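This follows on from our talk about sequence and fold. Can you supply me with one protein entry, sequence and fold together? Could you add the entry underneath, on a fresh line?
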Amino acid sequence: MFRSFATFNYRTWFFGAVISNIGGWMQATAQDWVVLTELTDNDATAMGVTMALQFGPPLLLVSLTGWVADRFDRRKVLLATQTTLMTLAVAVAVLLLTGVMTLPLMFLFALCFGITNAFDAPARQAFVSDMVSLEDTSNAVALNSASFNMARLIGPAVGGVLIVAIGSGWVFIANAITFLAMLVALLLIRKGELIPRAKNRRGGGGLAAGFRYVMGRGDLKVVFVMVFLIGAFGMNFPIFASTMALEFHRGADGYGLLSSVLAIGSLAGALLAARRDRARVRVLVIAAGGFGAASIISAMMPTYGAYAVVLTFVGFSTVTMLTTANGYVQTTTDPALRGRVLALYMAVVMGSTPIGAPIAGWVVDTFSARTAIVVGGVAGLLACAIGVGWMLWSGRLHRREDARFLLTLDETRPVSVVRAMEPTSYSDPAASTTPLRLPETEPGRAPKAGPEPSEA
């Protein structure tokens, strides 16, 4: 389950990320509560607009952010984005503590957070594959999700208590301090132990190359559509949890507790995903169906406690789905295009929020929080149906040869890597004209150079 921890760089990254993510969830809880109760009078639509501004830039800037993740040193990109996010947190804290924060100003800062995260997210996701081998990438992605949800378990509850105890402005200060853990981790990473990155020597093509790659893969198109549906209409948890807390007559601490309860199931889903040898589409489809069912059931719960219990199953299915989708995209994508494809994926995950969050806020204000949750659940069931339909239509689902009444699904295998080859010198012409030779030297020595290949 923890095999990626054998790598020093990944261990360092993991523990820095846990601390930083705890602060991030504390800040997210404070920001949502400030917009909902301090800057407005329980206006869920304003909260949806804030989320739209924060998560919209990954969709609008995807052509640039994916190129940056593939073109530049990802470690240096992350140092720049993490420093910027820390500075923004301090600025918001000062405005809140001095009493001059307004709703338009919060909208502006949400946009700035979104622009910075648009560059941070694809670089951070792709950086995982720079620290571990291809065989451990799926495990590392799952452990990353476990780190994120471990922080989600602690951060909102602590954030909710701190809002009541010392005020929302100081929560932003606390988050700014936690960014130091990630910055120190990035500085401690051993650059010489990072995995060499494959380079695309065909001129790149920018985002268009990544888009053509995804459009040529039916399995990736289905994964993206499923994630978009659930991301847009089902994963508006800040709106759902905060408005349900108000419906059950709870304050900021009650909202923070619901977010932490959601993280209990999320952490369990991430750890279970870490035990799997690789990511599979069928797990994604099952998780989408589980998300839809659990969401609809949660909307029917009559008490705060019952809603919280069902919310753990919502969190479990959500993270199982996202971790599987992320691992599948990373391990089955051409390494030379991984940054751009991941930028597209993150644009779908984060960029779906600007579409769904305002709609969810409007549904809450017009009908009820429970109605909005049911809409998200229906989106999950629709995503599951699309996945099942693709498995049947693609011809990958067929009867097992060794069992008459059992079915099996042909999965896309991760790209195999020949260790004797230098990945940075890879190109399509070389792959088609250069014969593969097994190394005939002792371990630790470079293989002997063979004769020059002739033109095909």
